[in-house]
Model the fold of this input.
Amino acid sequence: QVQLVESGGGLVQAGGSLRLSCAASGRIFSINTMGWYRQAPGKQRELVALIPSRGNTNYADSVKGRYTISRDFAKNTVYLQMNSLNPEDTGVYYCTLQQQGGSYWGQGTQVTVSS
Done:
């Protein structure tokens, strides 16, 4: 019912920046939350940042101050601006849309930060 398409991942050196995008389509309710999770090799998927349709954003402590989540409601798109990247930020980043009736996930985009 909802499809999410991510883009923007890649390889970057430590200290660099990347901007991820995620476009949602389908049956999207007006009250929802979009955001990003990531999964490092051998580790559990963890919250990165969330942004509701109305309300406060939520960031993991590890990324607060370096990442900025935003969304374009007209395009049903959420963004993740990642600055001052370090190797610990490496992982597969997954976009999510959560609303009444279900949670939806993108396929993930690889982010690799080299030292």
